[in-house]
Amino acid sequence: LRLGGTSGEQATIATSAGRPVVVSEANPGEVERAALDSTDNVLGVAPDRLTLPPQTAGSTAEAQLAGSQSETVTAGTFTGFAAADCIEATSEAWLSAGSTTVGRTSLIAISNPSSVGATVDLTIWGTAGEVAAPGTTGLIIPPGAQRVYPLAGFAPGLESTVVRVQSRGGPIVATLHESIVRTLAAGGVDIAGPSAPPATLSTIPGIVVSGADAVTAAGATAGFDDIGTVIRLLSAGADVASAVVTITRATAVDAPAIPAPAPPDTTAPDADTPGAGDTIFTVSLEPGMVQDLRV
User: Fold this and answer.
1) Which of 137, 124, 71, 67 shows the shortest CA–CA distance to 95?
2) CA angle 285-287-290, nearest 5°?
3) What is the DSSP letter of 153?
4) C-alpha distances in angstroms, 68 versus 71, 81, 180, 247, 280?
5) What's phi and psi for 214, nearest 5 deg?
6) Measured on CA atoms in the order 33, 147, 160, 178, is the torsion positive or negative?
7) Has residue 287 got a pLDDT over 70?
8) For the whole model, what pTM was predicted?
9) How far is CA 256 from the centre of its chain?
């Protein structure tokens, strides 16, 4: 999702470029797929709802369902590849992603796949703490609908954001759609799903960091300072928090000093991660922090 069309017209409305490729699998049974009834996307491309019909009487097998979507877009400065897992609807989601600085567009998409209306509250944090933003409470998401909210409409000028989405009533699915334009050059697109909730120990496995030298060189160019691989942390509790990040590789273990949020209720500045190659990031946190990693 993005704001406006390819030439910048209607820059306050949500539109999409093409349609994602959705794949799914179930065991046992067949996946049923249907679009939600309504969406703020003016082109009418609504999210798909994947469901698994009830099993036959007497079946003892545990039903399993999985799906994902992906899309490659080439529409002017809205260019790149994005992919995301299909997500089970819940009453709470933490979106550890986004930026509302110049050239960065972040859209919060909230879908209600249930038959019950949802009333949603947003809590937004930046590097200076929780943002007191009007209009973030009492958002109504009708049954079978998707609503899209520009993050900059609530909290402009934030370099690093974390958003907590809480629903009363029907369960919801929340994602954050990001796009970057660096001056006049396309900087990529992404769909960020929910992060793990606050915890004292988190592991982010299977992260491939490649082309570190090229990324470092590009980062010296104006507008490219956020191009590197970073870890984003939020101290969501009332106490001062600290973090130790251990990076495990096939040949060595590094424990770099990662700046952690000093005051409560703040996000740390995105911390650069060193090195390249197949890497497993193990993040030890205290107390009650939200984390995510951007490559």
Assistant:
1) 124
2) 60
3) G
4) 11, 14, 23, 28, 23
5) -65, -40
6) positive
7) no
8) 0.87
9) 25
